[in-house]
Amino acid sequence: MTFWRRRERVPLMLTGGFHASEAPALQRAIVQALGADRARGVPVQAELEIVRGRGEHLAVVWRNAIVGFVPPDEAVTLAPQLPPARSREVTIVDGSVFPVVHQPPQPGADKRGVLWRIWVGRVPDEIPPVPDGFDQLDVPETKILGVPVSRLRDAP
Question: What is the rounded distance in angstroms from the CA atom of residue 68 to the CA atom of residue 50?
Fold first, then answer.
């Protein structure tokens, strides 16, 4: 076995598609992975990697950043398709990163109300809306050098 060998890419078979969960909580990672594509404000084609997380959870990785999680009902069908934990294979699937504008802005959205979402699977003509209560993680508090911004504003 060579150390520098490239990992084999295995396409994942999906019958449809789904939203990756926890986009508001992982908005910083999504925006960071978007880079300059964010300025255009249009959907970006993405080659996503599905990896095993803690327990039965599956994570969605894009451009070397965790940008979401596979919802539990989808994880049940995808987990058997993933290679074993110590395998050198990378499981990939096509997807899209797209902006959703919320008025008034939701937690995690930027000041224009834009929240970037991840669609896993072949992109349909019309992406269905995200169901209510889909995201469970809290949006992290904004910090500067580890100090919450709310504490800076409240200071005398």
Answer: 10
